[in-house]
Design goal:
The complex is a heterotrimer.
Chain A: E1 5-11, E2 14-20, H1 26-33, E3 52-55, E4 58-61, E5 74-76, H2 89-96, H3 106-119, H4 125-132, H5 143-160, H6 176-182
Parallel strand pairs in A: 1-5
Antiparallel strand pairs in A: 1-2, 3-4, 3-5
Helix pairs in contact in A: 2-5
Chain B: E1 2-5, E2 19-22, H1 27-37, E3 46-47, E4 50-51, E5 55-59, E6 62-63, E7 77-82
Parallel strand pairs in B: 1-7
Antiparallel strand pairs in B: 1-2, 3-4, 5-6, 5-7
Chain C: H1 22-27, E1 42-48, E2 54-60, H2 62-66, E3 70-74, E4 86-89, E5 92-95, H3 96-103, E6 108-109, E7 115-121, H4 124-133, E8 135-140, H5 147-151, E9 175-183, H6 186-192, E10 195-203, E11 215-220, E12 226-230, H7 235-246, E13 253-257, H8 273-283, E14 287-290, H9 293-299, E15 306-314, E16 320-332, H10 339-345, E17 354-363, H11 377-395, H12 399-406, H13 425-433, H14 436-439, E18 447-456, E19 461-469, E20 475-479, H15 487-499, E21 506-510, H16 527-554, E22 561-564, E23 567-570, E24 579-580, H17 581-584, E25 596-603, E26 609-619, E27 626-636, H18 643-662, E28 693-698, H19 720-732, E29 738-739, H20 743-756
Parallel strand pairs in C: 1-14, 10-29, 12-13, 16-17, 20-21, 27-28
Antiparallel strand pairs in C: 1-7, 2-6, 2-8, 3-7, 4-5, 9-17, 10-15, 11-12, 11-14, 15-16, 18-26, 19-20, 19-25, 22-23, 23-24, 26-27
Helix pairs in contact in C: 7-8, 10-11, 11-19, 12-13, 15-16, 18-19
The chains are: A alpha+beta, B alpha+beta, C alpha+beta.
């Protein structure tokens, strides 16, 4: 039997004490030890980004980090993105823009986008694409993902803060440019 | 009489003809009639009493869903095609 | 000519509501197959062949079995032997002996990664350690890696019992089948042609590239029933294939659909599902198996690499007169490539009087191919759509106009097959011609613009649906169609439209194989079409029953009740207050009990799809790297139920086509071992590789369908490689004949052209 190690970390705002084997990745620890299956496994080599979490403010592939390396760190996972029952602006925008089809890459994209906007609240589209280039999506061609992040950045920098509220029921049609041009907001 | 379009590689049974008139109220009867006219054809189309799974039959522009029981009309145009799957 | 949203008098259809499963997916709460856990669960791992082609001489498992934590080790000896013949299963015909041998090898391994044994242990790490302790003795055989090598006389034979009709019962062969399609007289046709273009193309094997690995949790119960939780495109197919492979009656297997992280056709068969039940039956515990990315690339069905010769002739006024094509597709280890579909789509967009097409399905020491989004068509279009481009140039005719002049429309005969019913090919060409993209000038060095079109049949098949009315007037609609791309929202929208309720008051449910009638795979662009049809009929059935109940409360006859604008009203006259569903719902108990609407279809009258794609590229003359500058996709979508998800299919298919065009390929070494088993070296497009993509949805409704729906999911992947090849030609003067048009290949071709000053096509080796 491999001896397990006690690891202490802050996960989604709560102090957590967990047991893990040294050979387990952070991804495995989150999914199999803590039942936090929101972070996804896609490649185990850090190429697809489906396992992205934010560690001490940086977007990290949790498959490339060992669980024991999480000791003393502050981690945010997809499970901690919303504020209770209130979705984060990024989550709302992904829904409005239909930025997900199968949804398996979505948690990773949301965490990468969050890390980006936390550091760079007014990214250009090339900056967004560069920051998200480590997250692979096979379903959407990225079009609606990028539009959602552009829209989220605008909403956040317009002073909306963490938008409270319910999931929007209906989305406007057309491109982001259309929406912004019409001054449309989601009801 | 319905018109049956014969797949290229089976035209060796029909002396090279691609369009054959045949009679029958359904696909099964049609193929029986084809067999009567050109012995040896049926075993390439029918297996265990049903249309082979690798074959699709189109009647008047629509893929049949009833196998040998698919109705055929007097002036129907019937195509014998490979079955195609999607992804 | 463009489309959609809020048109044609629909209240819900054509709008863009938030998808019902959306919140779970953006919060990480949605459960995909690998997210399931059960008490006492064991973990399975597969031992895979390190050889591309070998006999299995012996398998010794005693050392592995002795490792603490190992609970079971199984091989093909633990599976029943199945008949070596074709049987109907799901969408297509399947040879069950081959399927079983692909799940656990029987006597021979036929590709690097071919499963040989499977282990269940108390942790995935112990299972992996156990694999290292299993001793397999192999006798290596020469690997056969290309269709050319496989078709040579004297080639090593992969399947000793494989025969084809032409070579006869006594000749072992690697050619599983030969198909031929013939119309008119190609020799005479080519004599009439003023211009003839003949080219040979090679396309590399590529993978669907779904981000989510294959997974299965099998639970075998003491009463002989098995339950499988898995991410699949078809729960009923999993049931029937597991039943056959394991020898368990179908009725004793229940398949529960987890959410699925992409499929594109690759998850319409089984790999891990039978193993999960096999191990669970042996151990008495739930057993979970999840593939690694390396296993996915080595051992799950990619789509065929191919060699295609395409010769087409036109008169100098631009009329196509003859087409002769030869296609050989890699089937992988067992027969069943999509070469037939390649042959039946290659020239189908055009009305050509003289056609001869020969198509060969060839086994090679690569993984058994599986469906990939319009299987077979993209390879074929790379050939035909670049030849058409060359012919148009020779005739001095704009490539869109050339296509329009020869384009298929209602009444045009298909390659082999009946005349088309109403289809929108010409409309897509018109839409591209009128697009802002086409009208814009492309300026700058090393830049070029290319166009190509694509065709796909789509399929119908079987779907079931039930609609339940709840006591508060909300509704649930239950189908068996796994939702990969937003179809459950479309189902809810159809019900909301018919019953006149808010789309958020309809809850779509994707049910397991016990809870809904038989439903074919979510594939073949059939879900909105066929399941949407079943849902529409079930909603109409519900409406009919609701009218009967209203009639009861009004003491009238059902035919005296009408339904307008979401309210039940008297068919004539007044005197009765209109009633909504919400008002009626609490009264169901006293008027006869709960209401369930139901319908099932074996859908007929499938509408095929056409798409035309315009792509601008910039080629770096020093590296051969191609940058995609602008993309516009015009597709005949029939009737877009939820336009955002239809656009999504157009975006996603195009992105996959771009990856297929520029970077994706399998690299095998001379021993037949796959060298790029990860996503760094199996290079799929990232968001930095793609621009925003413009979509134009043209709507030519499918005749006969109650909503005019046409399948949309597959066809957009078909044109991009050819469109990019045509754009590269205009940017560099080089005609690429091989996929992918990766930087090394394109660079080599450009250098060759510069050296020779020759504008002849340069094919990389």
């Amino acid at each position: 039997m491999v001896k397990k190690v006690i690891v202490e970390a802050m996960i989604n705002g709560d102090p957590v004490e967990l047991l893990c084997e040294p050979r387990q990745s952070l991804l495995e620890v989150l999914r199999d030890e803590l039942d936090m299956t929101g972070s996804k496994e896609g490649c185990l080599t850090g190429d697809c980004g489906a396992c992205t979490v934010v560690v001490d403010g940086r977007a990290v592939c949790s498959c490339l980090m060992l669980g024991v390396e999480a000791a003393g760190t502050t981690i945010t996972t997809i499970e901690g993105l919303a504020n209770g029952a209130n979705l984060h602006v990024l989550q709302q925008k992904f829904l409005e823009h239909a930025s997900l089809q199968c949804g398996i890459c979505t948690p990773g994209f949301l965490m990468s986008a969050k890390a980006l906007l936390d550091h760079n609240p007014k990214p250009t589209e090339p900056e967004i694409r560069y920051a998200l280039a480590g997250n692979l999506c096979r379903c959407t061609g990225y079009d609606k993902i990028v539009k959602a992040v552009i829209d989220a950045a605008k909403t956040l920098s317009d002073g909306a803060g963490t938008v409270r509220g319910r999931v929007p029921r209906q989305t406007a049609s057309g491109s982001t440019a259309d929406m912004l041009a019409k001054g449309e907001e989601v009801k | 009489m319905a018109t049956v379009v014969i797949p290229a590689l089976l035209r060796k049974f029909t002396h090279g003809k691609d369009r054959i008139s045949a009679s029958g109220r359904n696909v099964g009867q049609l193929i029986d009639d084809l067999e009567r006219q050109f012995p040896g054809l049926r075993e390439h189309l029918i297996e265990d009493g049903e249309v082979k799974p690798s074959i699709a039959i189109s009647i008047d522009g629509e893929m049949g869903t009833a196998g040998v029981l698919e109705p055929v009309r007097e002036s129907s145009e019937v195509f014998i095609l490979p079955a195609i799957g999607g992804g | 000519m463009a489309a959609t949203t809020n048109g044609n008098g629909y209240k819900v259809i054509g709008t863009r509501p938030i998808r019902h499963d959306g919140v779970d997916k953006v919060t990480g709460r949605a459960k995909y197959g690998a997210d399931y856990s059960f008490p006492g669960m064991l973990f399975g791992k597969v031992l895979r062949s390190p050889h591309a082609h070998a006999l299995i001489k012996s398998i010794k498992t005693d050392k592995a079995a002795a490792l603490p934590g190992v609970k079971a080790i199984m091989t093909s000896a633990d599976l029943p032997e199945l008949a070596d013949k074709m049987e109907a299963a799901g969408e297509q015909a399947i040879n069950l002996a081959h399927l079983s041998a692909n799940i656990l090898a029987r006597g021979k391994v036929l590709y690097d990664g071919h499963p040989v044994a499977v282990v269940a242990a108390t942790s995935v790490h112990i299972a992996e350690e156990a694999l290292r302790l299993i001793e397999v003795e192999y006798e290596a055989l020469p690997p056969v890696m290309s269709v050319e090598d496989a078709m040579k006389p004297g080639a090593a034979i992969l399947l000793p019992t494989l025969r084809n009709k032409e070579e006869g019962a006594d000749k072992p062969t690697n050619v599983a089948s030969h198909l031929q399609f013939k119309r008119g007289d190609v020799a005479a046709g080519f004599k009439e042609a003023d211009f003839i273009v003949e080219r040979e193309f090679k396309t590399a094997m590529v993978h669907q590239g779904y981000i989510e690995p294959h997974n299965a949790v099998g639970i075998y119960s003491a009463d002989g029933h098995a339950t499988i939780y898995c991410s699949t495109q078809g729960t009923f197919v999993v049931r029937s294939l597991c039943s056959a492979v394991l020898g368990i009656p179908e009725g004793k297997i229940k398949v529960v659909p987890a959410e699925i992280g992409g499929g594109f056709g690759g998850k319409t068969t089984v790999y891990l599902e039978p193993l999960s039940v096999l191990l669970s039956r042996q151990t008495g515990a739930p057993v979970k198996l999840v593939m690694t990315r390396g296993e996915i690339l080595r051992a799950t069905g990619p789509t065929s690499g191919s060699t295609i010769r395409c010769k087409m002739g036109a008169t100098n006024d631009g009329k196509l007169v003859a087409a002769e094509c030869w296609l050989a597709y890699e089937a992988g280890a067992y027969p069943g490539s999509p070469v037939g579909a390649g042959a039946m789509t290659i020239v189908t967009p055009y009305n050509i009087p003289n056609i001869l097409i020969d198509a060969y399905d060839v086994v090679v020491n690569r993984p058994k191919t599986a469906a990939y989004r319009a299987p077979g068509a993209t390879n074929a279009a790379m050939a035909s759509e670049t030849v058409v481009d060359e012919l148009a140039e020779k005739c001095g005719i704009d490539p869109i106009e050339f296509r329009r002049m020869n384009g298929s429309h209602e009444g045009t005969p298909q390659t082999v097959g009946p005349p088309f019913k109403a289809v929108g090919f010409l409309e897509t060409l018109e839409a591209i011609k009128n697009s802002p993209h086409y009208k814009s000038k492309l300026t700058g060095p090393n830049r070029g613009r290319g166009v190509a079109s694509g065709f796909w049949f789509n399929v119908g098949l079987q779907s079931s649906a039930t609609v339940n009315i709840h006591t508060d007037g909300t509704v649930s609609v239950v189908t068996g169609s796994v939702d990969i791309g937003g179809t459950r929202a479309a189902q809810a929208m159809i019900v909301a439209e018919v019953l006149g309720v808010d789309v958020n008051d309809v809850r779509p449910v994707v049910a397991d194989t016990d809870s809904i009638g038989y439903t074919d795979v979510t594939a073949g662009s059939r879900t909105a079409f066929a399941t949407g049809w079943a849902v529409y009929d079930a909603a109409q059935d519900t409406l009919r029953q609701l009218k009967e109940r209203v009639a009861k409360t009004w003491e009238k006859k059902p035919e005296e009740v009408a339904f307008e604008n979401g309210r039940f009203v008297p068919a004539s006259g007044n005197g009765v207050k209109p009633m909504t569903l919400k008002e009626l719902a609490p009264r169901l108990a006293r008027t006869g009990g709960p209401i369930i609407g139901r319908a099932a279809v074996n859908a007929r009258g499938v509408g095929p799809s056409f798409v035309t794609t315009l792509i601008d590229v910039e080629v770096d003359p020093d590296t051969g790297k191609v940058k995609i500058l602008r993309v516009t996709v015009a597709q005949d979508v029939g009737k877009a139920i939820h336009p955002s998800y239809v656009e999504g299919q157009m975006h996603g298919g195009t992105a996959q086509g771009i990856g297929w065009a520029l970077n994706e390929e399998y690299f095998y070494d001379d021993k037949g071992i796959l060298r790029n088993t990860g996503l760094l070296d199996y290079r799929m497009p990232t968001c930095l590789d793609l621009p925003e993509m413009e979509t134009i949805m043209v709507e030519v409704p499918t005749p006969g369908h109650p909503l005019g729906i046409r399948g949309v999911g597959e066809v957009p992947i078909v044109p991009p490689p050819a469109a990019i090849a045509n754009a590269i030609y205009r940017a560099t003067g080089v005609r690429m004949l091989e996929l992918p048009m990766s930087p090394p290949r394109l660079m080599k071709a450009m250098l060759k052209k510069r050296a020779s000053g020759d504008s002849q096509a340069a094919a990389a080796d």
